[in-house]
Amino acid sequence: MSLAGRPTSKDVAQEAGVSQSTVSLVLGGKWEGRVSPATARGVRDAAERLGYRPNQAARNLRLGTTRTVLLLVPTLTAPFFGPVYTGAARVAARHGFGVVVSTWPDDAAGPADSPFGAQNEAIDGILASSMAVEALGDFRETPAVMLDSGPHAPRTDDYVPTVDFGVADGARAIVAHLAGLGHRRIGHVAAAVDQWTFHARGDALSAAVAALPGGRLTRSACAIDVTSAKDAAGRLLDGPDRPTALVCDDDLIAAGAYKAARARGLDIPADLSVTGVDDVLLATALEPELTTVRLPAEELGAQGMTALLDLLSGGHPAPRVLPGELIVRDSTAPPAR
Amino acid sequence: MSLAGRPTSKDVAQEAGVSQSTVSLVLGGKWEGRVSPATARGVRDAAERLGYRPNQAARNLRLGTTRTVLLLVPTLTAPFFGPVYTGAARVAARHGFGVVVSTWPDDAAGPADSPFGAQNEAIDGILASSMAVEALGDFRETPAVMLDSGPHAPRTDDYVPTVDFGVADGARAIVAHLAGLGHRRIGHVAAAVDQWTFHARGDALSAAVAALPGGRLTRSACAIDVTSAKDAAGRLLDGPDRPTALVCDDDLIAAGAYKAARARGLDIPADLSVTGVDDVLLATALEPELTTVRLPAEELGAQGMTALLDLLSGGHPAPRVLPGELIVRDSTAPPAR
DNA sequence: CTGAAAGCGCTTACAG
DNA sequence: CTGAAAGCGCTTACAG
């Protein structure tokens, strides 16, 4: 056994009475037809006995890979991307991959933290969340998977798999829920963020409300923060023909809508129904608790990593769509009178 | 230049007209007294010209290191640990280190995700947040830094640096603020979590209120979730001699306190003042916005990683304490009458 | 079906 | 002050 006490493939070879090559073949799963089953079993037993774990650094050096993938997200301050990372890292770890995170475009981070700047880590692949495929420009030949970025034109030569949420279905579920309660005048407090999610939701919302007999949609845009959301919701509430329900693009925006309502003496849900999207912690901390569409963020990361790993080993993973789930709580009720 | 197009130290050597050893010496910063300044400059210029970046896998293999540190946190669902990770990863990246995260004790994760189970990644060091030093039992000889874990008995032979928040100061600042407003009967909605932070805060709170002429502290414990916090706050509010202010161990607990107050028809802050700790997003989403102690979580991660890197290169980093900052918002006011 | 050998890109004694 | 050489632990042609 090597000095440091950690067994190497050489140790396993000696223990099993075979050569290092045979160990590598067996443990690498490339033995069938090349090594006898009995020998293979012997190698595996020896490895087990010794508690052998291959040295990744050696493997990487030999193979020219890094077993590292880059998770690219638009921001790290939104609570949404934590779970995305968690899901991706969990699947990655199971396959001996690490995940490094960078924001792009460059959040508040200095250029030193940019993936394009002094990125020390070479990477095998990219998981890009909530951004246009064009953002990957500088990584042209790196295998990539797009998350929550919608359908897109294929990159020049290669295939970029996608994992998305069922955004339109979610929007339709919200409208159906509100319509079922009797709402017709609906306000959309929209995130003024140029991402597929928000465009898709806006379109689906417009269509669903238009399909509603007597349905009318008004819309006001804001940044994804409480203050901006409060203002935008206020504009809708102060406008003519006040909506009886406010559909918000994010739970945090819904928190802003709550404030706008309270500032006007409107009770939620008696005078005004409010819905969110995401179902982060905040949703149940608000009062009344928020009716929202739960987006499986961790699952997005996990499925994305699964697709990327598949792609890296030569596969051609199909696009996936993860359905959201409408969680009805206490912020929605029939309109007054 | 090597086939893949990425230059190696050999390429740099050739470009500079020296040997690979000299390149390694110069770029590794170990040249002084061994290589002439002129040669060193030539090497650096050549490296720059070629855009040379050392291959970490080769370096790791040679040195027997992994350039990976493990961040151990009690849970990933709390919004507090995201920024800790971000801060740690930022500093790590600048030094070519990666950060892998694991929860311990084992959150909801299966054993496959445990650092003790099928951890594939070998690690150079550990950053352990919000847990007792004893939790590191199985990692006895791995260099480690404890974050937000308080002072502790030294590990058997080696030094374990610490980075903590000024928890007691934060508690005193809250009491001083409330006392200044005229509060005397103070309730502590305490997190029933066996972590140093919470013990230290509880003790400091008790002492500060006891030092207050006429001060009286009541206490009720809960889990860190809204429902449990609402119950605990309710018990305090329904007890004899109702407190005029509720000091909560976490912003999320404060959200529960808000609910308990509203359920009893108490206005915040007119009838009841409430304070939190952390200053997460939630604090400004609540209504009224929450007076709380901001804990620099990202800074905790950054300073912790700085200390760990120092430790790994043979240093003996001093313990650090990061002060919290009282953020006064709208949830505190003089008591009624 | 199995093994001996080369080589991935570094760092570090060692020799000069 | 500088270079030739060994070796970290793997994987993969190549030879048998």
Largest interface summary: A-B, 45 and 45 residues
Order of helices and strands of chain A: HHHHEHEEEEHEHEHEHEHEHEE
Query: How is the CATH topology of the domain at 167-296 in chain A named?
Result: Rossmann fold
CATH superfamily of the domain at 167-296 in chain A: Response regulator
> Main β-sheet of chain A, in a few words?
6 strands, parallel
Indicate the CATH architecture of the domain at 167-296 in chain A: 3-Layer(aba) Sandwich
C-alpha Rg of chain A (nearest Å): 26 Å
Helix content of chain A: 25-40%
- CATH class of the domain at 167-296 in chain A equals Alpha Beta
Give the neighbour order of strands across the main sheet of chain A.
2-1-3-4-5-11
Structure overview:
The structure is a homodimer of 337-residue chains. Helix content of chain A is 38%, strand content 18%. With 337 residues, chain A is an alpha/beta fold. Among the domains of chain A are: 1-54, lambda repressor-like DNA-binding domains (434 Repressor (Amino-terminal Domain)), CATH 1.10.260; 167-296, Rossmann fold (3-Layer(aba) Sandwich), CATH 3.40.50. In chain A, the strands form 2 sheets. Chain A has a 6-stranded parallel sheet with strand order 2-1-3-4-5-11, covered by helices on one side. A 6-stranded mixed sheet of chain A has the order 7-6-8-9-10-12, sandwiched between helices. Residues 107-120 of chain A have low confidence and may be disordered. The A-B interface holds A 4, 6, 53, 55-58, 60-61, 64, 66, 68, 76, 79, 82, 86, 89-90, 93-94, 96, 98, 100-101, 109, 112-113, 118-122, 226, 252, 255-256, 258-259, 262, 281-282, 284-287 and B 4, 6, 53, 55-58, 60-61, 64, 66, 68, 76, 79, 82, 86, 89-90, 93-94, 96, 98, 100-101, 109, 112-113, 118-122, 226, 252, 255-256, 258-259, 262, 281-282, 284-287. The structure holds a DNA duplex (16 and 16 nucleotides).
